[in-house]
Amino acid sequence: MCGVVGIVAKTPVNQALYDALQVLQHRGQDAAGIMTCEHARLHLRKANGLARDVFQTEHMRQLQGNAGIGHVRYPTAGCASSTEAQPFYVNSPYGIALAHNGNLTNAQTVRQALFAEDRRHINTGSDSEILLNVFAHELSAQTDKLTVNAEDIFRAVQAVHRRCRGGYAVVALIAGYGMVAFRDPNGIRPLVYGVRDSAAGREWMVASESVALAVSGFTLVQDIAPGEALIVTAAGEHSTRQCAQNTQHSPCLFEYVYFARPDSVIDGVFVHKARQRMGISLAEKVRRVLPDQPIDVVIPIPDTSRTCAMTLAETLRIPYVEGFIKNRYIGRTFIMPGQTRRKKSVRQKLNPIDIEFHNKRVLLVDDSIVRGTTSGEIITMARESGARQVYFASAAPPVRHPNVYGIDMPAMDELIAHGRTEREVGALIGADAIIYQDLDDLVAAVQKKGKDCVDRFDTSVFDGEYVTGDVTPAYLSQLQAERNDAAQAHRTTGNQLTHLL
User: Fold this and answer.
1) Catalytic annotation on 37?
2) Could you report the per-residue pLDDT of 110-151, keeping only the tens digit for each?
């Protein structure tokens, strides 16, 4: 999972890009990067770490120009080396920089074609570098002119859609020309754009979430549609075009459950409102599963589940209390490699307030259960703090399948719900009872009503139905080999050795 941003303005964009990455930091805490364009010259700063640590005053001063793109990263393919921090850059044609959120399901096939047919070299394991080289190759194939125009760019994006499969939201800079942004034909990964009127004229911004627009005073215009491309020239002229055939709007349902900030609007859906509706439907499920079991308090697992838990407590007319203090400087644990490290991290990340648990029947509410590491440790902490009974409710259905479109979920056999019943999961994490949201209820909670509603979501992590139609058992087996703890530990060791050398 990653966050992207792009701006074309009338004044320097370095500060606005940095501010956007700060509010998109929840989408990626491993690396950050910004590239700006000053006339036809590109300036780049990227490194591993949080945005606040990557960009110091000296770096910001060097990031000159009125157009630029930025990126924050969690690794979903390749490795966690700083060489894979984005944006990526190629010199030919014109000078192009690109950042992307997502994952290609046919990356290996495209990589081989780039080398064998297009004579382009890929230097990392990142899907973003593949996308960049496909786009650059197709753009060079459109024209032999010294300059580029919108028609050339739209045709190149059309070719990208023909060659690449998966989920992707892309922002790119073309030196001396402007910015292009586009979204995969299924609209799996989010991408919005907005405008801001300054004294010098209209300015444009593209980002993964609307909250990035708001922080810099941009007004949300709309989401980039599945398969659509937006071009903004350095002069501020803009144009859009549908560049893909057979599009279908299938945004990732897990975005609304877990990743997106509650103050964002994605595909016309207010994330905060969607999570409130999740709480209402989950409360009804609790009533059905535990009709005769008294509950003294509802306690959320901070932070994402708070909205859902509060609404659930209101619906059930049960007191809502904060029972855990969160250390905000620990990353998301289901993404961390190594079971021992994840367990230790949970204890470092959350500390219980004993008095809220002592001698009480507690309903813990979390957004989801992935590996079960966090859930099991939290239940143990609740019991150690004196809870009489501990029930556990998940705002999402059981996560039984890996995400292949840009979220670095574990290998299939590391998902606690894979191949197990809900009762078995509850026993494994140590809960007196477990309550999962039903998938139909989750879809209904997120689905916006009206003529512009999303009528289909990517629900693959819950039901194994992958919207691109190209995910085979062989592909999932390969993915499992790449994502399991042993493989991640090997890559981490390799990165450390490379750094030492």
Assistant:
1) no
2) 999 999 999 999 999 899 999 999 999 999 987 677 789 999
Degrees, nearest 5: CA angle 43-46-52:
110
Q: Are the beta carbons of 104 and 188 closer than 8 angstroms?
A: no
2, 37, 79, 252: the catalytic one is 2
Q: Which two tokens stand for residue 44?
A: 């780049």
Supply φ then ψ for residue 446, to 5 degrees. -85, -30
Beta strands in 287-348 (DSSP E): 297-300, 324-326
Closest Cα to residue 395, out of 351, 433, 446, 349?
A: 446
Note the pTM of the prediction, 2 decimals. 0.91
> Cβ distance 192 to 206 under 8 Å?
yes
Of residues 213, 212, 195, the one with CA closest to residue 204: 195
Strands 389-394 and 433-436 turn out to be: parallel
Query: 153-158 contacts: CB < 8 A, separation 24 or more?
Result: 153/180, 153/229, 153/231, 154/229, 154/231, 154/241, 154/243, 157/182, 157/229, 157/243, 158/243, 158/244
Residue 277 pLDDT level (bands cut at 50, 70, 90): very high
Cβ neighbours around 463 below 10 Å, total: 12
pLDDT tens, 58-69? 999 999 999 999
CA 126 – CA 84 distance, rounded (Å): 6
pLDDT of residue 335: 46
